From TrEMBL:
Residues annotated as domain Cytochrome c: 22-105
Protein name: Cytochrome c
Keywords (A to Z) from UniProt: Electron transport, Heme, Iron, Metal-binding, Signal, Transport
Keyword Lipid metabolism: no
Keyword Metal-binding: yes
Domain of life (superkingdom): Bacteria
Gene Ontology MF terms: electron transfer activity; heme binding; metal ion binding
Pfam families the record matches: Cytochrom_C (PF00034)
Signal peptide: 1-21
InterPro entries xref list: Cyt_c-like_dom, Cyt_c-like_dom_sf, Cytochrome_c_Oxidase_Subunit
Amino acid sequence: MKKISIGLALSALVLAVPATAGDIAKGKTIAETVCMACHNPATGEGNMDIYPNLGGQKEAYLKSSIKAYKDGQRTGPMAGIMKGMVASLSDDDIANVSAYFASLK
């Protein structure tokens, strides 16, 4: 019984630790090279009204949205463009650029 209690306690600890946040500095570099055609890397604002503002968005939302574009799960007028833009991004790159845009207020 004691082993089960210890196991449950350790499992709860692991689940309570948040996922590692992305590296903001590395994310800024990605924003300045990959995203800048449509999103201002200094503010996260869309360069035109049709492009969404990314600055200050929740990191988890940005991460899941970028992954969905990469995996072809998002549709809409910009889906094809976004899929091409994020195709070369690794999971770490996605976490980093998401952390960067989320850090902008």
